[in-house]
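=== RUN LOG ===
request id: a7f3
mode: sequence -> structure
chains: 1
length: 291
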Amino acid sequence: MTSTIISCAVTGSAPTPEKNPAVPVTPAEIAASAVDAAKAGAAIVHIHVRDPETTKPSMDPAHYREVTERIRDSGTDVIINLTTGPGARFVPSPEDPSRATPDSSMTTPERRVVHIEEMKPEICSLDVATMNFNQHVFLNFPPHLAVMAERARAAGSKPELEVFDTGHIVLAKEMIKNGLIAPPPYFQLCLGINYAAPATVEAMQMMRDMLPQDAVWSAFGIGRFQFPMVAAAVLLGGNARVGLEDNIFLEKGVLAPSNAALVEKACGIVTSLGGNVASVGDARERLGLGS
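=== RESULT ===
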């Protein structure tokens, strides 16, 4: 059993402070929560940002800049993974489905990676997925993904290939074949999201078995499936993600007091199964960062 890389998704876009006051909102809160998660054992921190006034998701590069600089200035050795997910929401107009409603956020691939090109994180997420997502379409057009992958590579950022179902893996493998993704590819299996692969051991194993042989992979389940999927990922030879983006509870009926608490519980699962939690150095070596 290799050591398990723990990733922490710090804030995301769906959970709100109204649901759990521990959800960080401002750049200072997000950075502090990321640092605490790293100290608890997370080798990677996955970062979204929010508008400090409205608490809603944001694409403002200034927020990404402040979060990234605060984490780096803290002296904490952790791998920063900035999201490129925002900017892919499409809601068709009832009158003319070819046009988007104001609830849509579709934008250019160049805009979706502007903060990657500026901050040059070691990792950036790349959602190789087009799917129904609650009541909107999460639309990631393959030529747009190619532009984003190329720009990430030029910035020195390794794409984390987020896949939500089996067809997404097929597309990701095509991108690898076409030279858009440098080896070793890093996959994140996203399980339990509405209308995508369920958070089950069977789904995780099927998706794992479809990955390229040299792939490094991680997985997560949302809500009450978060910790069972940590155990499944460890036993199937993968890595695991936890965090308030995916789940706001530490256990049934108990709100998580922090991202660090979720990381600590995940680390406990790893060690209780006879494994070891990967250090940041181990994670960098296995992911081929800095090489």
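=== NOTES ===
The chain has a mean pLDDT of 97.
The longest helix spans residues 27-40.
=== END ===
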